[in-house]
Amino acid sequence: MTREGLSLVARTALQGATTLGVGSVAEAVAEATQRAAFRMILLDLQLPDARGYSGLLSLQYRSPASPIVVVTACETAASIEAARALGAAGFIPKSLPLDEIAERLRRIDAGQPCFPDEAAPDPRIAAARARIAALSPAQHRVLLALADGRSNKQIAGDIDLSEATVKAHMSAIFRKMGVSNRAQALLALQPLTGPVAA
Asked: For the modification 4-aspartylphosphate, which residues carry it (predicted)?
């Protein structure tokens, strides 16, 4: 029902928009892999195969030119700050009236980030955001691929780099994040992405 409601609001708010609804991050990633970009991706955080913001990271990696809007019932300041820190184009609480959701979608479509006013930010999220901000664009892409669970060889193939270049980026990422391996890098991102599976 939520998916149908959002589809209707998006088609009404965004002139000429068509919608495609899926029920999991895996389905969304599969669709993103087949297209150059979407006009906008509306992402519910409560999908069966999502863990924290892992779905956002996966979709950013697969569709880097598509603005991603988090649409969720979880409206905590920490959730809002995490979405902003990870590069979401907006954060829309499901509790908003449909006309307000439509207005926010129009603003995001016009290139204006749209986030609710938030309470005092969580210092762990601010620290994780600072670590991400210190990365170069190439390092950021490698980190997104790392968060998606890819090996160095897979990352190299997916973003058209040599394995040596990926390893060099990995070393720079570890240095800038103050960690010494992949697991520690993922743990450093935990305030943004949710718990790391053991």
From this structure: 44
